[in-house]
Structures are given as C-alpha cells and as structure tokens.
Amino acid sequence: MSSRAVQPQPPWVGAEGRLPLPWLERPLRQALTQKGHALLLHGPQGLGLFEWAMVVAQSWLCEGPDRPNPVACGRCEACHLLQAGVHPDIMVLVPQALRESLGLSVAIDEGEGATASSRQTPSGGREIRVADVRHAIDWGHQTSSRGRGKVLVMFPVDALNKVAANALLKTLEEPAGTMRLVLSAFDPQALLPTLRSRCQQLAMDVPERDVSMAWLLEQGLDAPDTLLAGAGGRPLEVLALAREGLDARLWPELPAAVQQGRADLFQGLSMHRVVDTLQKVCLDLMSRAQGAPARYFPAEALPTGARAEALAAWWLTLQRTARHEDHPWNAGLLVESLVLQGRRCWPARESRKPHVR
Ligand SMILES: [Zn+2]
Known about the structure:
The chain has helices at 25-32, 49-61, 77-83, 96-99, 106-110, 130-141, 162-173, 193-197, 209-218, 224-230, 235-243, 254-259, 271-289, 308-323, 331-343, 348-351; strands at residues 38-42, 90-93, 150-154, 179-185, 200-203. By secondary structure, it is an alpha/beta fold. It folds into two domains: 22-203, Rossmann fold (3-Layer(aba) Sandwich), CATH 3.40.50; 250-351, no CATH class. The protein has a five-stranded parallel sheet with strand order 2-3-4-1-5, sandwiched between helices. Helix 7 (162-173) links the parallel strand 3 (150-154) and strand 4. The two termini are 21 Å apart. The structure holds zinc ion (ZN). Zinc ion binds at residues 62-64, 72-76, 78-79.
C-alpha cells in the first residue's frame, strides 16, 4: 500500500467527460431514465452514493449539445459552473461533519446553493437541520436562473431528524416550482415510510471486482485485493482504511493480534473503525468455526481453536459498543478491553502460544 494520502475526487463528470467513479455508469443511466421529480438513491457506505447523486444532478442541469445522451458532457457552461461550485440552480445539503471527507470545495460552500448547510449544528454537525431544509424549500420556489429547473441534493437523508424529514414531506408531495430532488440514504428502511414512498427508489450494488481493482490500482494503492475483501468489496471503504493506516500488510495480521491480546495495533484508530474491524475478525472466526468461508480476512490469517460460546459473547459486546460508539469513552481503555475479551475466546493454554503464520 502506498503511503501517499488518497484525496477525494471532485464528484463531477470532468471536462474530459470522465465519471468520478467508473462503476457509476450503469446506476447513473438507470437513474436518468426515471421521470419522477424525486429520486431516493440508496446503498451501503463506500460505494459512492454522494458522487452518484451529484452526477445525476449534473446530468439534469447539463446544457451540452450531445442531448439526447442523458449523461452530463462535462464541457458546457453549466457543467463548468458546477465543476467550479457556482452553478446557481443546485443546492447541496450535507451535514457539516461530512463536508471535508466528501471533498466539498469552498466554492460549493459559498455558492448560492450550500450556504445553509455550512453552519455548525448542535448535533456536532452530523444532522441536516430543519432550518436548512426550510431554506432549501424556499429556494426551490424561486425561478430557475438558467431555465433547466433547480436541483436539490441531500446527502444523506439518514441525517434528517424527524422534524426536518416532516418539513421535506410536503415538498415531496407537491414539488416547489421546477425543483427536482436527489436524496441519498444508507439505510432507507430507517426513513419515514411516507418519505420513502414519495420517491423513486434505486439501489447501488457492490461493483464488479475487476472494476474496483483497476480503479484502486489507479489510485496508487499496492495489492488492494486484500483490503477490498476487508472492505466487503466497497472501493471507497478501501481508501478509508488506507487513510487510517490499515494497509494491506497490516490487515492480515489483525486476527492474530487479537489472539495475542495486542491492543496496540488498534490504538489510534477511530472507535468506529476499531469496533468495525473487531466485528469482522469475530464474524470470520465464527464462520471458520462452522466450516464456512471467511469473508474479510485471508483464511490463513485466522487462528484456529477459538471457542464458539466465547465468540458469541464477544460479538454481543462489540454490537453493544457499536450502538454507543459516539459515547465519550476513554478510547484507549475501551480498545484494550475489547481486544482482551477477543483474546479470551481462545483457551488460556493456546493464547500463550502466539499464532505463527
Ligand atoms: Zn454539460
């Protein structure tokens, strides 16, 4: 794995006509055949839901000569305005806490579009606020500046609280003026059913392995296959792992590190990443104990002999911790206790004997 920091790419069809992520081609064309005024795009994290929403919006606003090709050209004036973050007919509502990781530029922040979402919120910036939703709806009632209608992108709608979701419902029922909406959700089942039913829903699947591998190599990652498995096939999740220092060399060592009670390998990671990674170790150990194939780690990286009841108890602890990972824990102590419980899944006699690969 290269140590060079991987930067998020601009979420647009660029001037050379390239999609920001190569596997968006099919889902984009699928979205562009929909005639409704509100789309709800959903799928797991790490696939590029945000980029998908942005290229749908760009394609709706594109003024290129290639119509009826529905995909944005990347070269017309509208596309240039979007790429510069100053198109007057798009608003992007994103929780403050996500802006940097999405690579949202200052330009988008300061354009007419996104001023509302750039303010700090009491939720630590993790929510889309009701005031911002109302502001967006008012904005949607204004006349489109370039005559192609207005587009509101909201990512993710999982970040809407109940009041904000209710404020949005009415607009979904009776759209404001010429506004169209692109909403994205990681977990559509958790949304208000009335919100869901007022949108046309489209799901994104995990891209084909070859496509992901080629793209990850292009991003400068060495041997991305190990991490692609670790990330459940989600290429942007591989970049997130790499950014946090979990590289292809370290990743296969983690199950043995648990068996040896080595919490040091997990220190310094975000609590979300620690719990997520330990859950993957635990799941793979449980699969292996039942003779099923491992999903996240190479089979040879998984020490044998873990006791099934102890794994089940460890799994429950990890699940409980996952539900409260925003809690202000003493992170160092918590990581240590989670790893130690993992170590106790092996009988004491074996846990003194380090697993050798
Ligand atoms: Zn264009």
